[in-house]
Amino acid sequence: MSGYRSFAYFYDALTENISYRERAEYFDSLIKKHGGRKNILLDLACGTGSLSEAFSEMGYDVIGVDSSEDMLNAALDKKFESGHNIQYLCQDMTNLDMFGTIDVTVCALDGINHLSSLADIEKTFERVSLFCEPEGLFLFDINTPHKHKNILGDNTFVYDLDDVYCVWQNFYSKNDNRVDMSLDFFERDENGLYRRYEDGFSEIAFDESIIDGLLEKCGFEIAGKYDYDSFDPPRADSEKLVYAARKVR
After folding, report:
1. Residue 59 phi, psi dihedral angles, 5° rounding
2. In sequence order, what are the residues at sequence separation of 6 or more whose Cβ sits closer than 8 angstroms to the Cβ of residue 17?
3. β partners of residue 107
4. CA 20 to 30 Å from 212, out of 38, 111, 143, 146?
5. CA distance 208 to 115
6. What is the pLDDT of residue 31?
7. Are 144 and 240 in contact (CB under 8 A)?
């Protein structure tokens, strides 16, 4: 399995330490802080839908978009279990196509970093801007070059979970702050034997000045920029930034 298929299958196990309710509450507080409407919310790169579910519970009218059918299948399973009225669409972020305008777009958990180039980031910002309500908000988190170089780097991480063992190897390119990630999953079956699955993907990172410029080029003003999971300003060693951008033209 490849192309996020294995990753989709094991994603929830690997992210079980994340409180999606707390993530949704944080973004909700940003939306309130910057005068956003609690109406139609686009969860961009929604993955398996955990954050979409949390936003729906909080009263947003949620649309989830992801390019992985396997991720969306997992999201649909959660929707059927919860009964929440979430609409899921299988689309590439760079070709985002909505039926109407969106009040708030949220892209969390490194979604922007998963794009393959700066040109693709610009295309995504353009599409979000196209479907954004005037004065609407675009909120996203993004890994910094500092994190790619000093935290992810050429490091290997091991996750020993119930019935699943994962070896996550990173390969860092200093020329473009790209980290290529190779994942090996070992899943234990009912006989105690392990089956191996493989997957891989890349993440890119750019200086915040470049991201600032792209947002402004695509019709947004930066309403706020924060160190991850806080309302503090970015630091030189911030591993992740959170942007709150407002559509102004």
Report:
1. 105, 5
2. none
3. 140
4. 38
5. 16
6. 98
7. yes
Q: How far apart are CA 222 and CA 216, in angstroms?
A: 8
User: How is residue 66 written in tokens?
Assistant: 């992801």
pLDDT in tens, 160-216: 987 788 999 999 999 999 999 999 999 888 888 888 988 899 999 999 999 999 999
Longest dimension (CA), the chain: 60
Alpha-carbon distance of 171 to 182, in angstroms, equals 8
**Cα distance between residue 32 and residue 210, in whole Å:** 27
Pairing of strands 132-143, 178-188: unpaired
**Distance (Å, whole) CA 123 – CA 218:** 9
Share of the chain above pLDDT 90, in %: 83
C-alpha 68/C-alpha 147 separation (Å) is 25
Is residue 105 scored above 90 in pLDDT?
A: yes
Return the pLDDT at 221.
Answer: 98
Rounded-to-integer distance, Cα 152 and Cα 136, Å: 33
- Nearest of 9, 128, 118, 115 to residue 67 by alpha carbon: 115
Structure tokens at 69: 């059918």
- At residue 1, the pLDDT reads 33
Identify the sign of the CA torsion 102, 108, 112, 115.
Answer: negative
Q: Residue 56: name the closest of 15, 28, 96 by CA.
A: 28
